[in-house]
Give the backbone structure.
Amino acid sequence: MRETRKYRALPYNPKLKERAKELRKAGNLCEVLMWNQLKSNQFKGYDFDRQKIIGNYIVDFYSANRDVVIEIDGSSHDNKVEYDEERDQFLNSLGLNIIHIAARDVLQNLDSVMSYLNRHPFFNK
């Protein structure tokens, strides 16, 4: 079930709407594999969005149920340490928790990634 109040309370840059749509259509393999595990409340009954706009950022996955952002870190994050830190600080300032998962882990051992998330404190409060 969608946490509508929390969902709508987040800052939103409408100028990123087309970019978020493009990212969903592009179908990065790691994100598609992860999405297949998270969509339709499959993961512990939590509602997730893919390529969610929060402020001036587009996050890979967001669950208002748990105030959690999941970021799949692949080559697009290379040489963007400052940008990623700035984004994480902004998201944390909104009360969101961020989980970073390496793209190679999603590709090579998705079962372990899902086991890790299943045990993660953010999903077991």
Observations:
- The chain has a mean pLDDT of 92.
- The domain at 4-123 is CATH 3.40.960.10 (Endonuclease; Chain A).
- Helices lie at 4-9, 17-26, 29-38, 81-93, 103-108, 110-119.
- The longest strand covers residues 57-63.
